[in-house]
Design goal:
8-stranded mixed β-barrel; 20 helices; 6-stranded mixed β-sheet; alpha/beta; flat
Length: 576
């Protein structure tokens, strides 16, 4: 039985009811709560707000600074809480958990103080930046067991674990319902398996350049006779926490292979199916053997089963996980990195492991319309993936504007409501003539054809160059610095050096010497152009001749500090 409770149970006889915590000198929550139960006048707990604090990754502090250093951190934490929440009760709940019990603070006031606390503790003299999370429970005025109140604050705190940009959560009806659903999942998981409440929905993936279906993702859905559709965000999270997710994933893999075999036998067009793997699939089962056995059972081609591994799977840095991924790919399966950009180790994963596709996290598209940075980030991911020889897919595409942008930057595959929602198997069979027609589906030959086209990088200035793991630019670029109208090159790239040699210059000093020997009228116009760029921040253009070589140069003012000024130049050789 999974019990959503954290903290001491005052009904048990083996808890420590000592008044004072020996490390921080604070009153303990166990003692404080026992006093409120013995004496109703001790503290009006039923009118209070409980804020539960948790230091993230406190083990790291102990490992880096030893236990005395960790204790010093807790004492600093105590001092700042007592200062920021002056006049309120600050207690220790054990481990790295401190609690504030207040009477007259609104949630907004508490939120501001939590923000201040993180700013202060982020400057801890040990030099270690750590985040403190908080959960808030506001009493409704009715008598409640103290431990229930603190548990609710603790559960709210747990909701923001792993969310980098959120410091606190409030226990409210929404969270209460969510926790009740989680408990329902645990109580009825086995029943759901036995009675067939789990279903597989299939969401088509389309080729950006053609709009044709080129794959499906198999998605788990729980259709419950009591609760109806239970959100995957609820049941997947719970099953991972209680180490049962591998059982669900094995079921989805079996159903996907079974349905793929049915597609092959139908005579209609069929496509690869991707299935999601959790970190725990690699820890709790021989996932390679699980997949191999089901693929053999239904006699489906290995290249038609795609394994999607979410970024969070790599958090534990398992050597065996990387080895299993390599075994999958060596054996003919495709392995995709799911939710790319959602974790803290995205680029490290690309450096260590090999993948066939990156699935760009849908959260980037959620801010697509409001935040211009999202477009830059998405384009940069596509550009980087192409340079690494990895194909790209964007999920969560909901609008034509998003689709056109992704197609324009060279993202190859699209998944989202703009084209198709996840489809129940029964509806899929009903719509088979439409969904599986050869006109709406990509052929195996076309898959190879467009995969090769997809290697071209629309965002690179050297798109025709054969793919190599190297950084290069064919645009001649230079940074020029001037002091009192005397100039020097402080940077030139290899393409610029190559362009210099076309007009007989081997060094940048030779280039400057030839430029300075130009007609005085040309020198004046060049200087006036640079002054204009500095005033307007516009790009200016110059034409130069070096014997029989004509070049055009474009310049943009960058920055001036005192007499020192910098410009960026690009040049193009027109004729020789």
């Amino acid at each position: 039985m999974f019990v959503m409770q954290e903290g001491p149970d005052l009904n048990r006889g083996n808890i420590n009811l000592e008044k004072t915590d020996p490390i921080t000198g604070l009153d303990t929550t166990a003692w404080f709560f026992s006093q409120t139960q013995r004496d109703p006048n001790f503290y009006p707990l039923h009118k209070s707000t409980i804020t539960f604090f948790n230091v993230m990754n406190f083990k790291t502090i102990n490992q880096r600074f030893s236990y005395p250093g960790g204790n010093a951190y807790l004492c600093k934490f105590r001092d700042e809480l007592k200062r920021i929440f002056e006049g309120e009760n600050v207690l220790r709940a054990g481990a790295d958990h401190l609690v504030v019990i207040s009477l007259n603070l609104a949630i907004e006031d508490i939120a501001d103080r939590i923000k201040e606390l993180n700013l202060v503790m982020g400057r801890f003299e040990g030099g270690l930046r750590n985040q403190i999370k908080a959960g808030i429970y506001v009493s409704d005025g009715s008598p409640q067991k103290p431990i229930v109140m603190m548990d609710r604050a603790s559960l709210a705190c747990r909701e923001v674990h792993g969310i980098f940009n959120k410091d606190y959560a409030v226990f409210d009806d929404t969270l209460k319902n969510k926790l009740e659903q989680k408990q329902y999942v645990l109580d009825h998981f086995e029943e759901a398996f036995e009675k067939g409440y789990f279903h597989v929905y299939y969401q088509p993936v389309v080729r950006a350049l053609t709009g044709k279906i080129c794959g499906y993702e198999a998605l788990a859905r729980w259709i419950d006779p009591v609760k109806g559709m239970i959100s995957p965000l609820i049941f997947i999270d719970v099953l991972e926490k209680v180490h049962l997710i591998h059982k669900l994933d094995a079921y989805i893999i079996e159903q996907a292979c079974k349905d793929l075999r049915d597609d092959i036998n139908s005579g209609y067009a069929y496509q690869p199916i991707s299935v999601n793997l959790s970190r725990l699939d690699f820890e709790l089962s021989d996932i390679k053997s699980v997949v191999d056995k089901v693929v053999a059972k239904y006699k489906v081609p290995k290249e038609y089963i795609v394994l999607e591994v979410t970024e969070s799977a790599f958090a534990s840095d398992q050597k065996s996980l990387g080895e299993t991924i390599k075994e999958f790919r060596d054996d003919g399966y495709q392995v995709w990195l799911d939710d790319f950009g959602s974790g803290f180790s995205s680029f490290n994963n690309l450096q260590i492991y090999d993948f066939d596709f990156l699935k760009i996290d849908m959260n980037f598209l959620r801010t697509f319309d409001q935040n211009p940075k999202s477009r830059v980030i998405i384009a940069s991911i596509v550009d980087m993936a192409k340079k690494l020889g990895i194909h790209t897919l964007a999920e969560g595409v909901e609008t034509e504007e998003q689709y056109e942008f992704l197609k324009r930057i060279g993202c190859e595959l699209i998944q989202g409501y703009y084209f198709y929602k996840p489809i129940p198997l029964e509806d899929y069979h009903t719509r088979r003539a439409e969904l599986c027609s050869f006109e709406t589906n990509e052929s195996p030959e076309d898959r190879l054809y467009f995969d090769e086209i997809g290697r071209i990088n629309f965002l690179d200035n050297t798109p025709l160059r054969e793919h190599k793991l190297e950084i290069a630019s064919d645009i001649p670029i230079a940074i020029v610095e001037g002091v009192n109208r005397k100039y020097r090159f402080i940077f030139v790239n290899n393409a610029f050096k190559k362009a210099m040699r076309t007009f007989g210059a081997e060094t940048t000093d030779e280039v400057l010497d030839r430029l300075n020997k130009n007609d005085p009228g040309i020198l004046r116009r060049r200087y006036e152009g640079l002054v204009h760029s500095e005033k307007t921040h516009e790009i200016v253009e110059f034409f130069e001749e070096f014997g029989d070589v004509k070049i055009v140069s474009r310049a943009r003012f960058l920055i001036r500090i005192g007499d020192k000024v910098a410009y960026a130049f690009i040049i193009k050789v027109l004729s020789r």
